[in-house]
Specification:
Elements (H helix, E strand, L loop, with lengths): L2 H47 L1 H20 L4 H13 L9 H4 L7 H7 L2 H9 L9 H6 L20 H16 L10 H11 L6 H13 L1 H8 L2
Helix pairs in contact: 1-2, 2-3, 2-8, 2-11, 3-8, 9-10
Bound molecules: fe (ii) ion.
The site of fe (ii) ion (FE2) has 5 residues, from loops.
């Protein structure tokens, strides 16, 4: 085989590789679009269930991203936090409205019903491989740093990191949102609760990141509260 023939074969191989790469990136684009459509469909399902949940989920998503940025996470992890925040309560679709909209005075069995939502949500999204990374967020966003949370009673760093971030964002939004039976907590009270919760409810480092944002970047929080 002379040099020219070898060069020709190499060229053919390169153009074949290029073709395969182009086809692969085209398939990825199609998959990415299908994924985004699925996200949108699920988002509509969440909104239809409860308008409070909608605003709450969008804000939890935004606060989680702010925390992720503060903690120096990669853009891939920030994307996971964004989607995970939107869907952290998706399992509430399985909770009857009579319980979900009650807000106060829940009986023990009603509360037990609500406590199923992290597992229900994780099961709902399990068949979709694209959601693989957000499932730990959905499943463990009600765990507490001291191990007294649910559904698994995981403790400290056994709780997936992104779930610990969403847990802080979730509580922060609950504290700063007005409910039918109470006003939102004052800034001073929110700061106190985050301080008290360090190491019990919250990962101390993540609670500190939230405090840092509240104290030094309040404009970012105001921006999220417009959602
Ligand atoms: Fe939840």
């Amino acid at each position: 085989m002379n040099k020219d023939t070898i060069a020709l074969e190499e060229n053919e191989e390169i153009s074949e590789m290029k073709k395969i790469n182009e086809e692969l990136s085209e398939s990825n684009t199609i998959l990415e679009n299908a994924y985004l459509e699925l996200v949108e469909t699920l988002r509509l399902a969440v909104e239809a269930k409860d308008t409070y949940t909608r605003g709450h989920s969008d804000r939890v998503s935004a606060y989680s991203v702010l925390l992720g940025e503060k903690l120096g996470l990669s853009s891939r992890k920030l994307k996971t936090l964004k989607i995970g925040g939107i869907f952290h309560d998706i399992g509430k679709i399985g909770v009857p409205d009579s319980i979900l909209l009650k807000e106060r005075g829940l009986t023990e069995s009603e509360f037990a019903e609500i406590k199923k939502h992290p597992l229900v949500g994780a099961e709902m999204l399990a068949p979709v491989s694209y959601f693989k990374n957000i499932i730990p967020i959905i499943k463990y966003h009600h765990e507490r740093y001291d191990g007294t949370g649910y559904p698994a009673g995981l403790k400290g760093e056994d709780i997936p990191y992104l779930a610990r971030i969403v847990a802080v964002a979730d509580s922060f939004d609950a504290m700063t949102s007005k409910r039918s039976y109470r006003n939102s907590l004052t800034r001073k009270k929110v700061i106190k609760q985050l301080e008290i919760g360090k190491g019990t409810q919250f990962d101390p480092q993540i609670a500190d990141a939230m405090l840092d944002i509240i104290i030094n970047e309040p404009e970012k929080i105001k921006e999220v509260q417009k959602i």
